[in-house]
Write a structure and sequence with these properties.
By secondary structure, the protein is an alpha/beta fold. The strands form four sheets. The chain has a six-stranded parallel beta sheet. Strands 11-10-9-15-16-17 form a six-stranded parallel beta sheet, with helices on both faces. Strands 13-12-14 form a three-stranded antiparallel beta sheet. The protein has helices at residues 33-37, 39-47, 72-82, 95-102, 126-138, 171-181, 200-213, 224-230, 245-254, 295-306, 327-338, 348-356, 371-378, 384-390, and strands spanning 13-17, 24-25, 28-29, 51-55, 87-88, 109-111, 142-145, 167-169, 191-195, 216-219, 260-261, 265-269, 277-280, 289-293, 310-314, 342-346, 366-367. Helix content is 35%, strand content 16%. The chain is built from 14 helices and 17 strands. The termini are close together. It binds adenosine-5'-diphosphate and magnesium ion. Adenosine-5'-diphosphate binds next to strand 14 and helix 12.
Length: 392
């Protein structure tokens, strides 16, 4: 895969697709992990005299401008990290963007307003996307793909624009691919996977292929509930994707005996605000919800992870945002910090969790910025935004 080291960029206009889709809290960036992860490529380009045009999306504004989804807080935070302000254009490819790009000096940076203010960005219609990609390509001489979290999408700024400009991967995309490759071939064993979080349906496809690849699969978070129900337990008022119970039963059938490990105890409360009590996983009271794996489960999972040679972790073990339910997620992170395994942490909230709990990112082999993209990659799927980089 060609990287920016293979491109002559001095004085040229470089369209840099980044993944800056960060959580916001009252108009401020709540977790700047993705912004920080985009810095090495950005600063390499500006140091080498490129005129950098950053494009990115934020949330799901539905294809039209919406101030609630402006990239303004992101541009402000990026400016703080760089030590100088970053101009945000008022539109994405219109007259404001063109004027700002024309005024760019070598080493300068502008950010285009949210790509998804334009319905064509995510359109399934090739002609619509092509038209928008033409506009993006007109702004630049070169294209650099560094928004790993979006490379599994066939979007105009990810896929179509790469067909129109000389291109290369940024350092983030390269680092992601190198790390995730280690989970697809020549895997050092034991290979232990920890899966949790709340987006269960989104992750079950990947779960299926992990059954083939992994030695042990530890299941926590809300992901555990369809499995507990499939096994015949009641889960009270826990967050349950009921439509996933049959899929969980199928996964249990396909796995080797003992390969999928479920919680044996759970922290429950009547509401997420409560302090939480520990109960057996098969005895969750009808009026209580499971909000974290219990201490016995956390210790068992930690031991398995500590003994691993390769680990993939996607999804928090509980509602880590609230202190009484962060113990399981903390135990998993600590075991990985203490152990020797090559560890890939995937999932936006999982990355946010380790940072929120005070773990340094370099404690882990690789913290992926892309949840969906990393899950598709390790299944061996073709990711449009990566495949297109192979074409010249
Ligand atoms: P990721 O972004 O890492 O892939 P998800 O988006 O699937 O993870 O899920 C993250 C969310 O899951 C967190 O906000 C966390 O509070 C929530 N969560 C984890 N366990 C539970 C649980 N037992 N009950 C409710 N929410 C949970
Ligand atoms: Mg998430």
């Amino acid at each position: 895969m060609k990287t920016i080291d293979d491109l002559a960029v001095d004085g040229l206009r470089v369209l840099l697709r980044a993944d800056l889709n960060v959580p916001l809290d009252g108009g401020r960036v709540a977790d700047d992990g993705r912004i920080r992860a985009s810095l090495p490529t950005l600063t390499a380009l500006t140091d080498r005299g490129a005129r950098v045009i950053i494009c990115a999306h934020l949330g799901r504004p539905g294809g039209k401008p919406d101030p609630a989804y402006s990239l303004a807080p992101v541009a402000a935070r990026l400016g703080e990290l760089l030590g100088h302000p970053v101009e945000l254009t008022a539109d994405t490819t219109g007259s404001a963007a063109c004027a700002a790009v024309a005024a760019l000096h070598p080493g300068g940076v502008v950010m285009l307003e949210n790509l998804r203010f334009n319905a064509a960005e995510t359109s399934k219609d090739d002609a619509q996307r092509s038209h928008f990609a033409d506009q993006l390509a007109d702004l630049a001489d070169l294209y650099v793909s560094d928004g790993f979290g979006a490379v599994h999408r066939k979007h105009a700024s990810v896929y179509d624009v790469a067909l129109r400009l000389p291109h290369a991967a940024g350092y983030l995309v390269k680092a992601e691919v190198d790390a995730l490759d280690r989970l697809t071939a020549n895997i050092r064993r034991p290979y232990v996977v920890a899966l949790g979080g709340a987006k269960v349906a989104d992750k079950f496809d990947a779960f299926g292929s992990l059954i083939t690849a992994a030695d042990r699969i530890l299941v926590g978070g809300a992901m555990a509930f369809p499995f507990l129900v499939a096994r015949g337990d009641k889960v009270g008022t826990s967050l349950l994707e009921a439509s996933q119970v049959a899929a969980a039963a199928d996964l249990l059938k396909r796995a080797t005996p003992g390969q999928i490990e479920l919680p044996s105890d759970v922290v429950v409360a009547a509401e997420p605000g409560g302090s939480g009590a520990v109960v057996a996983a098969d005895a969750i009271p009808a009026d209580q919800m499971g909000l974290d794996i219990g201490p016995q489960t956390a210790a068992r999972f930690a031991a398995a992870l500590f003994a691993a040679q390769t680990v993939f972790w996607n999804g928090p073990m509980g509602m880590f945002e609230r202190k009484p339910y962060s113990g399981g997620t903390r135990a998993v992170a600590q075991a990985l910090a203490d152990g020797e395994a090559f560890t890939v942490v995937g999932g936006g909230d999982t990355g946010a969790a380790i940072r929120a709990l005070g773990f340094a990112e370099d404690t882990f082999g690789h913290v992926s910025t892309g949840g969906g993209a990393s899950l598709e990659f390790i299944q061996g799927k073709t990711l449009p935004g990566l495949a297109v980089l192979e074409q010249s």
